[in-house]
Amino acid sequence: MSFLVSKPERIRRWMSEKFILEGLRELELFGEQPPGDSRRKTNEASSESITTSPKRDNMSSYLPDISCYELLTIIGKGFEELMTVNLAQYKPSGEFVTVRRVNLEACTNEMVAFLQGELHVSKFFSHPNLVPYKAAFIADNELWVVTSFMAYGSAKDLIRTHFMDGMSELAMAYILQGVLKALDYIHHMGYVHRSVKASHILISADGKVYLSGLRSNLSMISHGQRLKVVHDFPKFSIKVLPWLSPEVLQQNLQGYDAKSDIYSVGITACELANGHVPFKDMPATQMLLEKLNGTVPCLLDTTTIPPEELTMKPSRSGASSSLGEGMAASNTRTSNGEAALHPYHRTFSSYFHNFVEQCLQRNPDLRPSANALLNHSFFKQIKHRASEALPELLYPVMPITSFEGMQTQDPSHIFGWLPIWSSLRWMIGNSRLSIEHHCEIFLQSNLLNTLQFLA
């Protein structure tokens, strides 16, 4: 009987049966496909957003065998503290990967179903801006999910350890364009992402932008029909509340749709630009009231901060944020060694302000779609591919390319400090700035925010 089967065995059987069904779907002998005309015309900016058909061989090139992976340092923890994230090496090729290990025996039945949904979506989706899953298998009582290693980490890592007052406008344009391309694909496949935030935006060593966080995806397809709205509240979403739209938080009969993701894009844009997420320290009830009452976050610069508040104040960032077009030079020191201007003594372009305002419209019907936003004037400043431009825009931050001396970590370690120290070691080893300066930056940062883990 099913209730006598262990959770690891249950999910192992599910994975086997699910992949058989996927094979039948490929032969068009079973099931329904998410809607969306793959033949539709798209603009140049979004030409990569919709592929002709989803590839289903994402997890076939890496062996589902625990002996093929050498676990190195622990780089994170999440999913109600039941998931451990390891940097690992795939022995057959020597490639570095990320391995997420979930203790299935400690998971509730609801959590197991949640993980099954993620695996289904990861098997079904294939897009240049979605994190590719290399393998998924059961090892003892753990679910192992292998993904590509992102050498720049997440956008959250970057603003937490280096760009503490926000990134350059041009860098954000490249990052947000990649996110919107991924969302355009997800939405046309009939899903809502529901977890867009900086920690789910990953950047590879060659400067490519990827959206992760597929666990929270929700299908808007029911019995072969696309629903106009859905009502399910995202499970295990406490850490995502600041990014969720008013209609998702409100939980009324009107429901929500893919436009809720666009609101999250606006919040994420503020997070990247300001160095912190709006509503972060508010109680959930106050946050809901603020959003329902029409409180709209904004980009912090000379057009939104009163002149009297732009007093002299050293920047916390370790690099200039003046690389982007539309931004004044800031976050530097004067020739005589005096402190820099206020970190927000800068001016973002009117296009960027308008982009954020459109995303954060209280009425979801007034928000543009992901595809429409890809045509926004904000993205006209992009002249090259992200892989060609982002590494230079993120300088002096360098991707992690060497792992000499890294050893397997004891899981009993305090996980909160491992990614922090890893980030500091990464920055110190590759930046022109001194160790003393980085220690000063670290101490100036908000310790509570630093100790938080990414879901």
Automatic annotation (TrEMBL):
GO biological process: protein export from nucleus
Protein's job: Pseudokinase which, in complex with CAB39/MO25 (CAB39/MO25alpha or CAB39L/MO25beta), binds to and activates STK11/LKB1. Adopts a closed conformation typical of active protein kinases and binds STK11/LKB1 as a pseudosubstrate, promoting conformational change of STK11/LKB1 in an active conformation.
Family: Belongs to the protein kinase superfamily. STE Ser/Thr protein kinase family. STE20 subfamily.
Main location per the UniProt record: cytoplasm
Protein name: STE20-related kinase adapter protein alpha
Lineage of the species this protein comes from: Eukaryota, Metazoa, Chordata, Craniata, Vertebrata
Location of the Protein kinase domain: 69-379
GO cellular component terms listed in the entry, alphabetical order: cytoplasm; nucleus; serine/threonine protein kinase complex
Source species of the chain: Thamnophis sirtalis
Gene: STRADA
Gene3D superfamilies with a match to the protein in the record: Phosphorylase Kinase, domain 1, Transferase(Phosphotransferase) domain 1
Region (Disordered): 31-56, 309-334
Subunit structure, interactors included: Component of a trimeric complex composed of STK11/LKB1, STRAD (STRADA or STRADB) and CAB39/MO25 (CAB39/MO25alpha or CAB39L/MO25beta): the complex tethers STK11/LKB1 in the cytoplasm and stimulates its catalytic activity.
InterPro entries, sorted: Kinase-like_dom_sf, Prot_kinase_dom, STRAD_A/B-like
Biased composition (Polar residues): 44-53, 317-334
Matches recorded under Pfam families: Pkinase (PF00069)
